[in-house]
Each structure stands twice: as C-alpha cells, then as structure tokens.
Amino acid sequence: MKLDTSLVARQYEASRPVTAPLDGAAGSPLAGAAADFAETLRQGEAAAMSAMTNGADPHTLVQALTQTELALETAVAVRDRVVEAYQEILRMPV
Q1: Distance (Å, rounded) from C-alpha 80 to C-alpha 86?
Q2: 3-state SS class at 19
Q3: Distance between the two ends of the chain, CA-based, in angstroms?
Q4: DSSP state at residue 23
Q5: Are residues 47 and 60 in contact, defined by beta-carbon separation less than 8 angstroms?
Q6: What is the pTM assigned to this prediction?
C-alpha cells in the first residue's frame, strides 16, 4: 500500500495544534522539571563529546556524567511511582 506523501504531510500539519502544549503549561512545575532534565542530558552529552574530541578535563566529564545519572535515576523513580499509582487506581472498585 503506497501512501501519498503530501497527504501524510497534510495530516501531520493538521494534527500539530492538537499536540501543542497549552498556554498555561509552559510555566507548570512539570514542564520546568522536564526542561531541567533535558538540559542536564544535553550538558552531559556536551561534556562527553568535549572529552572525546578535545581531551577536556576528566573531572568535568565525571561530574557531568554523575549529574546525568542522578537525573535519569530520578526520572525513572518518578515514572515508577506514577505507574504504581495508576495501577492502584485501576484496582479500585467502582
């Protein structure tokens, strides 16, 4: 089955407003935490690339990787708690 690429592009463009964040969501604590998490990952990647290409300070690399690991462990812990709460809600009798 061959799809017309222009049709797919039009459908994607039509669905973009639906998935866009709400106006008030930009200042929410969750959005701020997600932005901080993404920035921590970017800094870790930048430090790793710098260490591989320029031979940057290894202490900076270790510090950036430790911060990235801590951020990832925190995100996984939050995700696990959310999934656990959702499962608990599903078990509740109606």
Answers
A1: 10
A2: helix
A3: 44
A4: G
A5: yes
A6: 0.60
